[in-house]
Amino acid sequence: MSRLNIGIIGAGALGLAAGFYLTRSGNRVTICEAAPFLGGQASTFLIGGTPIERGYHHLFKSDIYMRQLLDELGLAQQLKWIESKVGIYADGRIWNFSTPFDLLAFKPLSLLNRIRLGIVVKYLQHARGKDPFESITASNWIQKYAGSQAHDLVIGPLLKGKFGKYANEISMAWLWNKFALRTTSRDKTGYKELLGYPMGSFGQIFTKVSEQIQEAGGEVRLSTPVQEITVSDGRASGLRVKNKDGADCFLEFDAIIATVPSYLMPKLVPALDKHYSTFLTKVDYLAAVLLILVLDRPLTSYYWINVADRSMPFLGIVEHTNFIPPEQYEGNHIVYITNYLDVDSDLYTMDKESLLETYKPFLHKFNPDFDLSWVRSVHHHKINAAQPIITTNYSDKIPGFKTPINDLFLANTTQIYPEDRGTNYSVRLGKDLATLISRKYN
Ligand SMILES: Cc1cc2nc3c(=O)[nH]c(=O)nc-3n(C[C@H](O)[C@H](O)[C@H](O)COP(=O)(O)OP(=O)(O)OC[C@H]3O[C@@H](n4cnc5c(N)ncnc54)[C@H](O)[C@@H]3O)c2cc1C
Questions:
Q1: Which atom of ligand 1 is nearest to the CA of 54?
Q2: pTM score over 0.85
Q3: Is residue 189 pLDDT above 90, yes or no?
């Protein structure tokens, strides 16, 4: 096979995985990334000199593509499986929410509705295939089978928190898959959930991939936003980029992969036809907004608390150091307060001081002793296009890898379905696309 020269836009999990597997099959890749760091949504920053994800990250046992990548990079020994402690905030307090026994003790629901929800969850965990769930909303399905109390007190507020104004449009196929996949991360007893974390952070995976690409003669250019995908004679011929030094530069390629959100494609490719551009905008996204508190002591004893109370201004609390011990972070206790938001919402536009001011009164509900004097530092990250909106009959809205322009390929999180988007599925897409390209040009 002749060696192809391939341009990749984006050094997130997908772009890096595509680059890694294309390099392995003998091609040369150049990855252009707008940000000054690797990893996109799964990128890291430093807290007291130690890397940690901008948004909390873990792996499930079913994340076989990430596990395989770790193996291939010689990083498998870094991956540790740790029991998670999950809670739910409802009816004014935190309830354990990890095991079937916890559900039985969840008093906000009547005993009958607890049993009913337990049976429904069991059914969903073992149901195979998305087809029966594709065309019905999660909201309607849950009301029908688990009852309106389970919907109004548990699932409804969680959908509202995660998807905001889209909550009533979300497909049951998305919710079914969440339940089905999570069972795969349970231990042999079925009661403990084990989650994976690459000790040292996800960042080391991306660094190693980037190093291997460069050792094989490829390039990974950070702080290099792509401004245009140029098209000549009906094919994608190259990328117009702004270099680190601010100078414009043109790079020529045999084929180009874009891993950007779908709505950016019409801006990057002026030559794209209207019909395809309109098709791409059928999937909306929400942004993730993270306020990260570095504390001198724990806030709670939970790793993950879902907030099923929409009078609260956030969706969840993820206390990373109840998963990975604080000793790994120089004794700091690290708490993410998380939200998924529209980019025009008030909370999205707030700075970290205003967000902390808004969230502070509610943090007392998770620990009545909480005091601002516990806070060593505050960090704030906004991640755009973090969550594609998975509506009913979503299969019809998924774009293929191939675009109407020859030699231009699109791969992004809108193509992940029915699974919820995650690093594992971005790696799967990157690998699948590398295979498709290697075969097509062979
Ligand atoms: C808060 C949060 C928590 C999460 N938790 C988990 C978890 O626990 N486990 C898990 O597996 N996954 C998790 N995910 C999901 C996971 O991080 C993403 O699904 C995955 O990282 C997406 O990778 P990607 O490469 O497809 O997209 P992205 O990471 O979005 O990468 C796209 C890249 O393209 C770049 N780009 C865009 N435009 C241009 C341009 N014009 N020129 C050059 N570059 C450009 C962007 O800067 C970005 O780096 C989480 C996500 C969020 C937001």
A1: 1
A2: yes
A3: no
